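Message: A physicist's question: would you kindly supply an amino acid chain plus fold tokens?
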Amino acid sequence: MDDRKIQIFIDSLLPLLQAGVAFTIPLTLISFVLGLTLAVLTAIARLSGWSVLRLTARLYVWIIRGTPLLVQLFIIFYGLPAVGVTLEPFPAAVIGFTLSVGAYGSEIIRAAILSIDEGQWESAYSLGMTRIQALRHIILPQAARVSVPSLGNSFISLVKDTSLAAMVTYSEMFRKAQEITATTYEPLLVYSEAGLIYLLFSTVLSALQNHLEKRFDRFTAKS
């Protein structure tokens, strides 16, 4: 690597890290929290005794899981203005990623709820709890522990998926890499540098996920 490329690498590092911390991470956190909330509601709707709720939830999951995330983002950002709905890049990206996390996460949570022994429900009912109370106080806390590994993987995937927000002009890390490439004409170098930063983020999050899983395992063992 010649001196010019080394200098480009050094000069690009701070702007890319700043974009990652200031834009990529907040987008990930907000989308995941909202998506997880939507996932819980969707999972409960899928298990509801009301057919309208079940069908609505199934339709939502079917559409989101059956179409590419990039297409969804394009519809939200570039398509909706055709019907008078214009969104800024950040809310458009949040909506797109939230819907995606909600759909995929709902299947994880639904499977976790179904994995809880039926006797847990019966025990809750014997204590006079309603179905909602049993779900809130008995079933969901146990399902949450079961869901941690899969939801952790979803969160790490979301960090990488946020690079798609560059396609709707949101200034996250990959968008910054595109801007730097446009002025330096070094796509291999700059995109590889961005990839290394994504790898760093994913590695740190994986370590945190492993720590969290071990803590839940100890808690489960004691209980």
About this structure: Residues 34 and 98 are 6 Å apart (CA to CA). The domain at 3-222 is CATH 1.10.3720.10 (MetI-like fold). The chain has a mean pLDDT of 91. The helical segments are 3-46, 51-66, 69-79, 89-115, 118-126, 131-161, 173-184, 187-222.
